[in-house]
């Protein structure tokens, strides 16, 4: 089978290189080119490598990065994976869609557009249909975005609870890893031995994105889910893995056992379709009193290519009418490049990339 040619945008950054990691041995997609700014023109990937927990193949390390060239990408690629910063991504992604390329983006710029799916295949696969509303779809070009890294971990457990009990109120507090801030990110002197209780724009993104993702698609439009959502976000000195403390009030009050059952039962389209980067279980529940922890659980997910793609939930408990739990997810895999990879796999499996 001839593989689909793809471009990686932002290939010198952390998310861009996570895309490269997932594409090295992808069964359907093949890297055509690595793209970044003119500053990086001609550099070998090995010279600008920022992913330290994956060993790239020698031929990957030797690939050269080139400056983004819309016409060249449009001529040679069906897909562009974007790990660009949001302010840069907006125009490039629109131009690529206009030129007939399917863009799977990690950037925030187009997430809240009414005709752009904010997609997690386990949570709202039906929203993929929105691409057909994009003016460029007739030419084959469109944009699909994944959610913010902390919203992504929260969405699957909430979806399981929404389906089983309905949601009334969600209060979430995050403990977010430094790799979420790109490279070099937060200065070491600001974060070592410290916690920073502010991440610009993060709380607003979480509060808006979760309602869109858990909303319902009616007549080609997403009606936001109707529950109260409150987020507080902090940066902690952890390399990878966002931990979140979640308090939920449901419409129909469940017991702890009901919640465990609903999350354990949670199966969705990526698992049924056996998408290459889908974890066998999207939610893994730990029974130990002190889990999940970033060092133990950040790479949860089976098989090997789905490491870092499962959300780990633990300490499910109740106080009065409130259900409380912790969750952990890998912010640059599940909450970044892995999320967009799964979005592209869903689109491919559904024939939207023909
Ligand atoms: P470059 O290294 O050439 O600046 P991170 O978020 O981890 O910092 O990564 C940002 C990525 O986006 C990098 O690959 C960076 O490339 C790329 N990028 C930033 N600004 C531009 C731009 N103006 N044009 C193209 N790529 C850009």
**Beta-strand content:** 15-25%
**Any idea what the radius of gyration is?**
19 Å
> Which architecture of the largest domain per CATH?
2-Layer Sandwich
How is the CATH topology of the largest domain named? Dihydrodipicolinate Reductase, domain 2
Please tell me the overall pLDDT: 97
* Count of folded domains: 2
Helix and strand content put the structural class at alpha/beta
Bound molecules: adenosine-2'-5'-diphosphate
Give me the side-by-side strand order of the main sheet: 3-2-1-4-5-6
User: What's the CATH class of the largest domain, please?
Assistant: Alpha Beta
Number of helices: 11
State the order of secondary-structure elements, H for helix, E for strand.
EHEHEHEHEEHEHHEEEEHHEHEEH
Total E-strand runs:
14
Biggest pleated-sheet summary: 6 strands, parallel
Overall shape: globular
Low-confidence stretches: none
The CATH homologous superfamily of the largest domain corresponds to Dihydrodipicolinate Reductase, domain 2
Portion of residues within helices: 25-40%
Structural write-up:
- The chain is an alpha/beta fold and 354 residues long.
- It folds into 2 domains: 4-148 and 337-349, Rossmann fold; 149-330, Dihydrodipicolinate Reductase, domain 2 (2-Layer Sandwich).
- Helices cover 29% and strands 23% of the residues.
- It has helices at 14-23, 58-61, 70-76, 86-98, 149-165, 188-191, 202-213, 256-265, 269-272, 294-297, 333-349, and strands at 4-9, 29-36, 65-67, 79-82, 102-105, 142-145, 167-176, 216-218, 221-223, 228-235, 242-250, 283-286, 311-319, 322-329.
- The longest helix has 17 residues, at 149-165.
- It is globular.
- Adenosine-2'-5'-diphosphate is lined by residues 10-14, 16, 36-37, 39-40, 68, 84-85, 88, 182-183.
């Amino acid at each position: 089978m001839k593989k689909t040619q793809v471009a990686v945008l932002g290939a010198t950054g952390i998310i861009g290189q996570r895309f490269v990691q997932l594409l090295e041995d992808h069964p359907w997609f093949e890297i055509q080119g690595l793209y970044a700014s003119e500053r990086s023109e001609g550099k070998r990937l090995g010279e600008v490598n920022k992913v330290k927990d994956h060993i790239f193949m020698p031929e990957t390390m030797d690939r050269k990065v080139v400056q983004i060239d819309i016409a060249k990408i449009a001529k040679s690629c069906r897909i562009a994976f974007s790990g660009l910063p949001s302010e840069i991504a907006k125009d490039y992604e629109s131009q690529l869609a206009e030129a007939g390329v399917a863009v799977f983006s990690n950037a925030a710029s187009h997430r809240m557009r009414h005709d752009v799916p904010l997609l997690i295949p386990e949570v709202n696969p039906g929203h993929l249909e929105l691409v057909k509303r994009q003016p460029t779809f007739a030419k084959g070009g469109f944009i699909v975005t994944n959610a913010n890294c902390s919203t992504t971990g929260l969405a699957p457990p909430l979806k399981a609870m929404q389906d089983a009990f309905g949601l009334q109120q969600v209060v979430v507090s995050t403990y977010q890893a430094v790799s979420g801030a790109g490279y070099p990110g937060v200065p070491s002197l600001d974060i070592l031995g410290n916690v920073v209780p502010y991440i610009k724009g993060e709380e607003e993104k979480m509060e808006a994105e979760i309602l869109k993702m858990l909303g319902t698609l009616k007549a080609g439009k997403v009606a936001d889910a109707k529950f109260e959502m409150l987020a507080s976000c902090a940066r902690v000195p952890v390399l990878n893995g966002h931990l979140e403390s979640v308090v939920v009030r449901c419409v129909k009050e469940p017991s702890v056992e009901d919640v465990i059952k609903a999350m354990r039962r949670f199966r969705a389209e990526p698992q049924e379709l056996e998408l290459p980067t889908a974890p066998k279980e999207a939610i893994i529940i730990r029974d130990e009193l002190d889990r999940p922890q970033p060092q133990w659980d950040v790479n949860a997910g089976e098989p090997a290519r789905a490491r870092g793609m499962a959300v780990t939930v633990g300490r499910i408990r109740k106080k009065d009418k409130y259900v409380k739990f912790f969750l952990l997810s890998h912010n640059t895999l599940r909450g970044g490049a892995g999320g967009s990879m799964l979005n592209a796999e869903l689109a491919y499996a559904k024939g939207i990339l023909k």
